[in-house]
Amino acid sequence: MKIQLIRNATLWLEYAGVKILVDPMFSDAEANPPIINSNNDRRNPLVPLPADAAVWAQPDLMLVSHLHQDHFDEAAIARLPKTTPVVCQPGNEEQLHGHGFTDVTSIESTISTNGITIHRTQGQHGTGEIGQWMGQVSGFVLQAANEPTLYIAGDTIWCDDVVQALDAYHPDVTVVNAGGAQFVMGDPITMDAADVIAVCEHAPYTQVVAVHMDAINHCHVTRDKLRDALDASGKSYNVRIPEDGEWV
User: Fold this and answer.
1) Are 152 and 140 in contact (CB under 8 A)?
2) E strand or H helix at 161, and its extent?
């Protein structure tokens, strides 16, 4: 298995001989407005892609955790072949078909494709009314012969859903969205540093890969802040924090 962080939550996986694109956001830097109800007016994405989007425009399979713009944007819709097989959560099929994608499969629980078993996991994209407003989100667990088990947690805070996924699948590698995204009111809607540390403490057997930082204006946990928190907690040995374009 190889994982490349493209930018934000967008990943390129080489897994069991299959090239998989996860949550594609291909917009140019500053092409989109700030996230509403955020505490600064920086335009998104904050940084450019590390290479031309054409590098990642021919995947064998695409995983879409949910349809928020920083996980699936108009630039990706325009660039990706509409015949690309897409795996998504229930309820997103109609919109994906509406964007022209012809091979869309939703996962309620588990599917198998290209020799890979894919399990859908749950998450909480925030707490209280904000969490409800943010809507359903999903993660994915990938398993295949002679490959490590990979858990992509998606846009979720530390919660019982994440605990259940870790306990059920005992993943070798866990990718967490660790930007601590937050509006001007309410709690974080993605993992902050304390949540990443909680993952490490609950599942010391898993190699954590922290992404979704330094790319969207309402994500307040930067790579540097996460490194500092991990160093202070003694958990830095268990977490990789790739730069955009870096392979793990």
Assistant:
1) yes
2) helix 160-169
Count Cβ neighbours within 10 Å for each residue of 180-189 and write b for 16 or more, e otherwise.
Answer: bbbbeeeebb
| Helix count and strand count (H, E) for the chain | 6, 13
**What does the block give as tokens for 163?**
């605990």
Residue 245 falls inside a structural domain: no
Residues 6+ apart with CB under 8 A from 190: 125, 155, 156, 157, 177, 178, 179, 180, 181, 212, 219
Residue 131 domain-assigned (yes or no): yes
Number of domains in the chain: 1
Flag whether 63 is in a domain. yes
Convert the pLDDT of each residue in 96-142 to its tens digit.
999 999 999 999 999 999 999 999 999 999 999 999 999 999 999 99
The model's pTM is 0.98
- The rounded distance, in Å, linking the Cα atoms of 196 and 192 is 6
CATH number at residue 142: 3.60.15.10
**Joined tokens for residue 158:** 């530390």
Q: What is residue 23's predicted lDDT score, i.e. its pLDDT?
A: 98
